Amino acid sequence: MAGQTNTSTGKQLELIHTRGIDPLHESQLIFVPKHREIKDFHSLNAIKSLRFCSHCLSLSGNPPKQELFQDSVFSFLYPMAIEAWFMDENNEDQRLPHHRNPKEFVSLQHLADLGVLYWHLNPKEYENDEELKKIREARGYSYSDMLDLCPEKVENYEEKLRNFYTEHIHGDEEIRYCLVGSGYFDVRDKDDRWIRIWIKAGDLIVLPAGIYHRFTLDTTNYVKLMRLFVGEPVWTAYNRPQEDHPARKGYIKGVLAEKIGVPLQAY
Ligand SMILES: [Fe+2]
């Protein structure tokens, strides 16, 4: 792969791309210094707490050396730690990826413009994770519980899956931290197109109140999610259409006024 030198520091940088991302998508390529782990992108106002080891290309494991990268002029194009894409119109099994042909990936900035927040954390550390603690404190996520979704553990699994997949909104944020397995959150963008967000272990995602969305497992049929909430949880789903719902109105106003579309928060 091509490399380049950071002009400020003279450090040799190596061009790599994140797991499974189409390397032709320039916006999803990142530069990392050789043999260093990047822990934070504070100054870049992009993804927080992305752990990336250039030895093993792991985004969430235990890199051999924990080093905090503090070079504010670190050169990169755009870090992409989560995969998201525009969906096709096909009605076959919802658990399939439903890529368009050719594939059309969606950037984190596009998700941020919709008010979707994202962090990547270490799922093995969730019980004592200072980073998770900071996020919870900053955003007031006082409540948490676990949701284990697989055919063996859930009664009426297929029916539940269908319900999760019914397009709806909530009056509050939907906050999910994926600890094991994977699944798809689909959200509508400003032009009412479906964007499929593939969450995997370590992905913490926040959907704003009032955004039309749905959820499904993927073909692995297993996900373990931590659900978070501000105060006493309310899981009520309001199926579309909900144009008069205060949360929907608030969301539309926020997006149009570009109040929601702030860069991903940094903590
Ligand atoms: Fe929901």
Q: How are the SSEs ordered, and which strands pair?
A:
Elements: E1 3-5, E2 12-17, E3 29-33, E4 37-38, E5 52-53, E6 83-86, H1 108-113, E7 117-120, H2 130-139, E8 143-149, H3 157-164, E9 168-169, E10 174-188, E11 194-200, E12 203-207, E13 213-217, E14 223-229, E15 238-239, H4 246-256
Antiparallel strand pairs: 1-2, 2-3, 4-5, 6-11, 7-12, 8-14, 9-15, 10-11, 10-12, 10-13, 10-14
Helical segment count: 4
The termini sit apart by 32 Å
Radius of gyration: 19 Å
What is the approximate shape?
globular
Class by alpha and beta content: alpha+beta
What is the H level of CATH, i.e. the homologous superfamily of the largest domain? Jelly Rolls
SSE order: EEEEEEHEHEHEEEEEEEH
Using the coordinates shown, work out and report the CATH topology of the largest domain: Jelly Rolls
**How many strands appear in the DSSP assignment?**
15
Instruction: Report the average pLDDT across residues.
Output: 74
**CATH architect. name of the largest domain:** Sandwich
User: Biggest β-sheet, characterized?
Assistant: 8 strands, antiparallel
Number of domains: 2
Distinct small molecules: fe (ii) ion
- Poorly predicted sequence stretches spanning 5 or more consecutive residues: 1-80, 259-267
